[in-house]
Design brief:
The chain is an alpha/beta fold. The protein is built from nine helices and eight strands. Helix content is 43%, strand content 17%. The structure holds the ligand Cc1ncc(COP(=O)(O)OP(=O)(O)O)c(N)n1, 4-methyl-5-hydroxyethylthiazole phosphate and magnesium ion (MG).
């Protein structure tokens, strides 16, 4: 079984446009990201398949797990993990289609009830957030570190914290119970691959010390 603890890097089609895509992602994985989510909202299935296929090889090289956002068909085609939000389809069906071993994550916003439903439906992890201001998804419902503490007591599943996570605020989330920190801008907003790698290493080291 995969260890679901550490940095969870999430791609962004604006931050990682064109030439940046592979070097920036490579740097995140080199810095220790354990999970990588391919999050691309464009309606270009051929490009999405192509990019996700490249990411799958890169993840295999680094021993990381690839997760596809929203798209069960693509996850099934590549035989990789899947992240589903509240409006992204039925988690139970996804579990049936992808099998027992697949990593399937569920958005729970700030709701322990959503988390309970996700657990029942066979989720591999439950994701709460946003915890801080997020430039990537400013309208996402807000959650607090206190919710993480409650979730930690109530659930045995790995807990993901997402939304405005940076090296500065990460320790508080890990201390409150987060097993994985999902990061877009705090990682891929960096000006160079070297800085992406430095930040990824910084996030990863926090999980060894806290
Ligand atoms: C790890 C993780 N947590 C939450 C989300 C948000 O999913 P969703 O609510 O479906 O929103 P979109 O990302 O699809 O805009 C996520 N992607 N990953
Ligand atoms: C997809 C998503 N869901 C809740 S917040 C968020 C965006 C996370 O991106 P960032 O790390 O840039 O705030
Ligand atoms: Mg979604």
């Amino acid at each position: 079984m995969h260890s679901l603890r550490g940095l969870y890097a999430i791609t962004d089609s604006h931050l990682l446009a064109g030439e940046r895509f592979m070097p920036w992602v490579d740097a995140a994985l080199a810095g220790g990201a354990r999970l990588l989510q391919y999050r691309d909202k464009s309606a270009d299935p051929a490009r999405r398949r192509d990019e996700a296929t490249q990411l799958k090889s890169l993840c295999e090289y680094y021993g990381a797990q690839l997760i596809i956002n929203d798209d069960l068909l693509l996850a099934s085609e590549l035989q990789v993990g899947l992240h589903l939000g509240r409006e992204d389809g039925c988690l139970g069906e996804a579990r049936q289609q992808l099998g027992d071993q697949a990593i399937i994550g569920a958005t729970c916003h700030a709701s322990l009830e959503f988390a309970s439903e996700a657990q029942e439906a066979g989720a591999s992890y439950i994701a709460f957030g946003r915890f801080f201001q997020s430039v990537t998804k400013p309208g996402a419902p807000a959650a607090t570190p206190c919710l993480l503490e409650q979730a930690r007591k109530q659930f045995h599943l790995p807990i993901v914290a997402i939304g405005g996570v940076t090296l500065h605020n990460a320790p508080q989330l890990i201390s409150s119970g987060a097993s994985l920190l999902a990061v877009v801008n705090g990682l891929f907003g960096a000006p160079s691959p070297a800085e992406v790698e430095r930040r990824a290493r910084g996030f990863s080291e926090l999980f060894q010390t806290l």
